[in-house]
Each structure stands twice: as C-alpha cells, then as structure tokens.
Amino acid sequence: MFEALMIRQANGETTTRLEQLDPASLPQGDVTVAVAQSSLNYKDALAMTRGAPVVRHFPMIPGIDLAGRVLHSDDPVFRPGDQVLATGWGLGEKHWGGLAGMARLPGRWLLPHPAGLSGRQVMGIGTAGFTAMLCVMALEEGGLTPASGPIIVSGAGGGVGGMAVMLLAQLGYQVVAVTGRAQLQAYLTSLGAAGVLPREALAPTGKPLEKARWAGGIDVVGGEVLATMCASVTHGGTVAACGLAGGMTLPLTVAPFILRNVRLQGIDSVMCPRPRRMTAWARLARDIDPTRLDSMLHDAALAEVPDIAPRLLAGHIRGRTVVHLD
Ligand code: NDP
C-alpha cells in the first residue's frame, strides 16, 4: 500500500484527502516509480481547491512534478533503481500525478535525474524552475543578452518568478523584480534582483505605449501586468508570458508589436518536447546557484499539502514548496 492525496468530486464539491492505495490501482504505464519528492505548483493548488478545469476526470492524484526511483520498467531506457524525474505531460490533470508514494507513467515522460542535483533540489526547481528556464531561453532566442538592458520579472515572490530572478541574475542580467509583498525586498535582492518594484509599477495608464524601460520581461501574472510589460519594453525586446495568476485576459493594443518590434513569446512547459526539456534541465543543473535555490525552498509532508494550497493561491507562499514522500 502507498499514501496518496486524492481529489474527489461529489455533489459539485471538490475534496482532497490523504488515502491508502493499492499499487494495483495505479493507471497504465510502462514505468512504476517510487516517488521520493514532489512539489506544490500553482496548478496543483488550483486542482486541489477547485478541481475542474485543471482536473479532467475524477478521482485524481494531483502533482504535476515527481522525482524518485524506478521500481519496475517495461521501457528499455529505464531500469529498476534509476533516479528519474517527470514534469507536466498531464500529470495531476489527466493522469495520476506525483503527490503520492508511487506513480505509474509512460517512460517517454521520464528524464534521467540531472547529475549534481539532489532530489530535493530537483523538485525545488520542478515545473517552476523548468518554466523559468524556458522563459530565459525564449529571451535569448529573441536576441537578448545581459548587455541589452534590464529585464523585468513579475510575481517574483512566487515559484516561477523567483526562479527567473535567480537564473537571470546568475547569467549576468540586471533583473528588476516586481512583487505585491514589500516585505520580500531583502529576499529578492538575495536571489540577485538589482531592483525591486511594487505591483503598482505595472499598473496600466491607458496608453498604448508606456515609457520604454525594459529590454525584456518574464510574466507569470497575465492581464494588465502583462499588457503593461509589453507596452514598456524597448524596441526589439522580448516578453515571455507563462502565467495567469492575475487573470486570463490581455487588455493590449498592437502598438508594442508594430511600433517597437516587440516579441511576445508564449511558454508552455506541459507539452514541451523531450529534446528541449533535456536542454533546459542541463542548463538548470549548470546555472542554478545552490545557495540561492536553498533560500527559496520550504519542505512539507504530504498531509500538510491541502492546507498549503489555498495559501499559495492567495499569494502567501514565498518561493517553492518541496513535498517529501519517502
Ligand atoms: P506562485 O503562486 O508560486 O507565484 C505566483 C506569484 O504571482 C505570487 O507569489 C504573487 O507574487 C503573484 N501574484 C499572485 N496573484 C497575483 C495577482 N492577482 N496580481 C498580481 N500578482 C499576483 O505560482 P507559480 O510560480 O507556481 O506559477 C505562477 C503562474 O505561472 C501561474 O499562473 C501558473 O499557472 C503559471 N505557470 C505556467 C506554466 C506554463 O507552462 N505555462 C508552468 C508553471 C506555472 P508576489 O506576491 O511576489 O507579487
């Protein structure tokens, strides 16, 4: 038997509870993994508190991230004992996820554990760090270098935003972090932010173009924050958009695109192809500062996760939460 968080829906109500499960109940897949660590992402918190639309069918084990050891494999690439990780691909949405002691999934979703990182570090990075790296790669592909000018990052107190600040600073960029929590100033500076701005700095003024201030941006918030970011990027700049913590809409004109040649690059980590995942994880293993990463991490037991989820959605959790299963 193994422990799992299970999201159930009955009479229109979503509940998430700890349950004991028989391994025979695991879904189909060619690799069975003893999960050692998972993590708590915004999407996991949405799944646990609201169910749909993140959860496509019930009952569902949440957890878009997992790291652990292969127990059984029908995939020739993996053998029992191999250390592996998986993020996305519908884990915790369509396929039972990582917030459980065991998982069974297709081998093509698994990556080998990156050399030089502990299981706690790998899940501390998790989807958030992986997505932040995809955003950094998008800025680079847009032609940005540290010499281009400052980069603005929204939602910096959270997982993706904090990882983006840390990675950009490590790569030599001048990073300006935007947060709704003034008390995080010292923490964000310690992650490498050269400056910290309040959320109001990205409040809309109603103008199609704002003063051009940033060479690029990484946005996890969406809505007016993303719109203002696009409108305040300098000529030829790139904005990578990956989140909706502030909303799904985008109240924007075409002015930044046709007058400043701005590039808006969407980022999806879930269906990211395997070769690009390998590239991003190799870079994470190389570019992460272990001390700064450690300062972002909190540890939690599986039973604590349902209580943490609403606090994460309310924007009260700093950095990343690693969930320990072993
Ligand atoms: P976190 O909850 O860890 O961080 C989100 C941060 O956004 C908060 O800490 C807060 O930062 C800020 N924020 C929250 N609500 C608002 C608001 N209403 N207005 C402005 N800022 C707000 O979440 P994650 O970092 O895990 O995820 C961030 C977003 O990115 C989510 O929308 C998530 O779904 C998305 N995401 C997308 C991925 C993809 O593949 N496209 C992958 C991973 C995440 P502060 O207090 O510092 O302002």
From TrEMBL:
Residue stretches making up the Alcohol dehydrogenase-like N-terminal domain: 28-114
Record domain Alcohol dehydrogenase-like C-terminal: where: 159-271
Matching CDD domains: MDR_yhdh
Superkingdom to which the source organism belongs: Bacteria
One term of GO molecular function: acryloyl-CoA reductase (NADPH) activity
Name of a matching Pfam family: ADH_zinc_N
InterPro entries: Acrylyl-CoA_reductase_AcuI, ADH-like_C, ADH-like_N, GroES-like_sf, NAD(P)-bd_dom_sf, Zn-ADH-like_protein
NCBIfam families: oxido_YhdH
Name listed for the protein in its UniProt record: Oxidoreductase
Annotated source species: Komagataeibacter xylinus
